[in-house]
Amino acid sequence: MKRILALFLAVLLLSLGWSAVPAKAEETLTVYSYDSIEPWMKQIVPIFEKEYGVKVKLVLLGDAGQVLSRLIMEKDNPQADVVVGIDNSYLQKAINEGVLVPYKPENAKYIPDWIIKNFDPNFYLTPYDYGAIAIVYKKDELKNPPKTFEELLKPEWKGKLIVEDPRTSSTGMAFLLWTIAVYGDRWPYYWAKLRDNGVIIVKGWSAGWEMWDKGQAPLFVSYATDPAYAACEENSTNIGAIFLNNTAYLQIEGAGIVKGSKHIELAKKFINFLISKEAQEKLPLNQWMYPVNEEVKPPACFGYALDVSKAKIVSIPSEELAKNTDKWLKEWTAVMVEGKSPEEISPTPSQSSKASSTSTTNKVCGPALVVALAVLPLLLRKRK
Asked: Which CATH architecture describes the domain 28-130+252-298?
């Protein structure tokens, strides 16, 4: 009788949903990224959460430079599992700081070889998009915008250019590297002239876009796809873009697993998901960059983007970035923040600056020649 009663009680408890085994807690993946990635994440994160029955905690930290700074600060006690948005300008610094774990995703075969070779063949970071920076303006406000770096120094453009801070912004860092690729070890002299001509320095891309959009300055360091944004979102052809000196500096963005993550397997799934067709299809109209997955083609309005194939691609070798990035940032700070003269900081010429300085004399430096393969997928996409 006691056995029957015990069995009855057990069945009753189960029917009421009680159990001696506690329910498994929902796994949470913490992702660090920059502010302007939010529109894309809002579309794709719910898909990932539903597919894997997990929760994604998205932490937005201004721009990519601020994201990397947080990772470095937390290196001994990491709080994030995945970082999204470290680009080729900050890649080597992230690797050198030891904040990443290499992982080659299962679907890496869909990423073109030229992107992998010119970004990170070791997959500390997996590329998920790419594009080129440019100077943007509004056609109804400027009929004859500056076409070269030197023209930006003329009195007529005093106080009219918005540039992101390279210490906190990947876009700003890309612009700094663009000037280094063009001017070589003479770049501090160019920046000193920009400073004297009233260049406006902002913390990140979002702040700069807001200022530019409100008409606080007519020129802004942004992206070659901004005209596509105007065409797609506003049915407008009012945004113009310029490759200064007819040169283009490519930006490739990547995502990686944070060293010390407590959810490695889930982090791997998230990296795979970012370059899946499902996630990549939602990237162009949210990030206004080109997807890396070869199976995904941007919408037709991307044909309004500034044509990279008509510019000279310039770059700086990754090994030179690794050796000189911190030095260049210190020199930039000395010139732009501390107000020192280029002669005071005595920049040491580097091999990359010597090589890259030839890129504006009808040549492209050696490493950039490989990067120039980017032209092919851009052309193919525009034809389809």
From this structure: 3-Layer(aba) Sandwich (3.40)
